[in-house]
Amino acid sequence: MKEIILKTIDSSLYRNFISARQEKEMKSLATSLRGEKIYFINSTAFGGGVAELFYSLIPLIRSLGVDIHWYVIEGDNRFFAVTKKIHNLLQGGEGAITPEEIQYYLEVNKKNAEDFNFPVDLVVVHDPQPMPLPLFVSNKITDKPKLIWRCHIDTSRPNPQAKKLIQSFLPWYEKTIFSLDNFARGLGVRDKKIIIYPSIDPLSPKNKYLRAQVSRGIVRKFGVNLNHPFLLQVSRFDPWKDPIGVTDVYRSVKKKVPDVQLVLIGSMAMDDPEGWMFYERTLRHAGEDKEIFIFTNFDGVGSAEVNAFQRSATIILQKSIREGFGLTVSEALWKQKATIGGNVGGIRLQIENGKSGYLVNSNREATEKVEELLLDEVKRERFGEEGHRTVAKKFLTTRHVLDYLKLFKKLVN
Ligand code: UDP
What is the pLDDT along the chain (413 residues), one digit of tens a residue? Predict the structure, then answer.
C-alpha cells in the first residue's frame, strides 16, 4: 500500500457553502474525533470518481483536525483486470470469475495487508478492489479497527456469482455505505447500510468559477469552433458510460443540425486496464469525422481543461447505462449546463427530468432531447439554474464531510 499525501486546504474557504449551524456542528464533531486515526483505502490515486472525491474530502477533514490518511493498494495489470471484471459483473455484466482469478484477487490483497501493521481506529474501504484486505490484517493487530465498506458502483442488478463473492466479505464490516437504497438491496444488505450521496468540490480546479472568456480561450486552443454548438461527455472510456451511443446520438442530431460538434473527454484510470481498449474502439467508431474531438489526460486535458470544456459546452451528456453516481452530472449542473443523462442509478438523484435536464432511456430519446435543447436557449438556461440549485443543496463536499464525521463519531464513541 502506498500513502497519498495531499496539499492542505483552509476549511474556512468553504464558509459560503454551509450554514453557520452546520459549520459549528462540523467543528464540534471534528473535535470529538481528535485522537482517532482514520484510513481511507481505495485502488487508484488518479482517474475516476473515487480519487476525485478523495482530493477534496481528505484535506478538508484533515484541516478540521482529524487524523485521516489515504492509502492506495498496489497491484499489477492482472489484478486490475480481475477487479474490473468483478466491477462489471457487479453492475450486471455477463461472464464469470474463475477460481484462479479469485485466488489472485485475494493474494494481492494479502500482499498489500503486509504493510498494514500499525494501530488505526477506523478504516473505510472503497469499492471491491481492496475489500478482502481486512481478512488479512485483523489477525495481525490486536486492537481491531472498525471497518466500513463504501460501495460506489451500481449494484442494483448484480451477477449472482459476483454478489456471492462480495457477500462473503460483508461480515467483516460493521457498516456499509451506498449512494442508493436499491444498490444495497441488490447485494442483500439490509441492517448495516447507510446512504450517503457523493459530492463535488466547488473550489477545486475542476469546479471553481472561470470567466467565460478564460474557459472559451482554453477550449478554442483545442480546435473546437465556438461559433458552433458542441455536445460534451466527460467519462472514462468504459462501455457503461456509452461513448459509442453518444457518438451515434451526435450523428443523428447532425442530420438536422449540421454544424453541431462532439467532444468526448476521458482520462485513463490506473485501475482500469479496459480503458485503452475501449478508447481505441471509440476512436474507430468516430472515424474520420473532424467535428468529433476525443481527448484524454495525455492530450493535456486535466481538471482545469475539463472545467473549461464543461463551462463552454452547449449541452452536456452523461448517457450511462449503469451509474453509481456520476460526479460528472453534478459538475455539469453546478456549471449551470442543461444536462441529459441516462435514466439509471445515481444520475436519477441529480437530474430532475424536465426540470433541471432530461433522463433518457435510448439513443432515440437522447437525440430528440438534444435537438429540442439546441433550439431552445431559454430552456437550457432554466435547466442550468435549477440544476445549480440542486447541487448547492445536496451535492457539495461540505455536506459530504458532515455526513462522514457524523458516522465516524457514531462508530468510535
Ligand atoms: N474525469 C476527468 N477527466 C476525464 C474524465 C473524467 O477529470 O478525462 C473526472 C470527472 O470530471 C469526474 C470523475 O473523473 O470528476 C469521474 O467520476 P464519475 O463519478 O462521473 O465516474 P466514475 O469514473 O467514477 O465511474
Answer: 999 999 889 999 999 999 999 999 999 999 999 999 999 999 999 988 999 999 999 999 999 999 999 999 999 999 999 999 999 999 999 999 999 999 999 999 999 998 876 688 999 999 999 999 988 886 555 577 899 999 999 999 999 999 999 999 999 999 999 999 999 999 999 989 999 999 999 999 999 999 999 999 999 999 999 999 999 999 999 999 999 999 999 999 999 999 999 999 998 877 788 899 999 999 999 999 999 999 999 999 999 999 999 999 999 999 999 999 999 999 999 999 999 999 999 999 999 999 999 999 999 999 999 999 999 999 999 999 999 999 999 999 999 999 999 999 999 87
Q: What is the pTM of this model?
A: 0.97
Chain-centroid distance of CA 377 in Å reads 29
- DSSP string over 316-384: EEE--SS-S--HHHHHHHHTT--EEEESSTTHHHH--BTTTEEEESSHHHHHHHHHHHHH-HHHHHHHH
Strand-pair category, 261-265 with 230-234: parallel
Output the residue whose Cα is nearest ligand 1's atom 14.
48
Q: Which of 42, 52, 310 to mutate to test the pocket of ligand 1 (most atoms within 8 A of CB)?
A: 52
**Centroid of ligand 1 to alpha carbon of 411 (angstroms):** 30
Report the CATH superfamily, name and number, of domain 2-199+396-412: Glycogen Phosphorylase B; (3.40.50.2000)
Q: Domain 212-394 adopts which CATH fold?
A: Rossmann fold (3.40.50)
Q: Which residue has the cell 486546504?
A: 9
Residue 317 phi, psi (nearest 5): -115, 145
Q: How do the domains of the chain map onto residue ranges? A: 2-199+396-412, 212-394
- Ligand 1 binding pocket, CB closer than 6 Å: 48-49, 52, 206, 234-236, 265-267, 297, 301, 303, 306, 325-328, 331
How many whole angstroms from 263 Cα to the centroid of ligand 1? 15
Q: Between β-strands 175-178 and 67-72, what pairing exists: parallel, antiparallel or unpaired?
A: unpaired
> Nearest to residue 408, comparing CAs of 212, 124, 8?
124
| Strand, coil or helix: 309 | helix
